[in-house]
Amino acid sequence: MKNILLVSINSFFDTPGEIPFLFKKAGKNVNVEVLCPKNSWLLSNRFHDKWIEVPEDAELIKLKLLQLVKDDPNYYFWIILLDDETVKLMNDGIESEELFKKIMPINKIENREVLSSKAGLSNFCATHHIATPKFINYSKEHNIDSIINTLQFPILLKEDFSFSGLGIQYCEEPSMLASCLNKVNNTSNLVLQEFIKGKDIGLEALFSNGELVMYNCAEILSYMYNQFSFTTRRLYYQDKNIEAHLHTLGKSLGLNGFASIQYIYHPERKIYYLIEVDARVNLWMAYSRFTANNFSEGIKRIVEEKNIEPIVFTDKKYEVAIFDRDIRRCIKHKDIKGFMRWIFNYHGYWKFIPLHDLKLFNRIFKKLLKDLFHKFLK
Question: How far is CA 182 from CA 149, 176, 248, in A?
Answer without folding.
Answer: 20, 10, 38
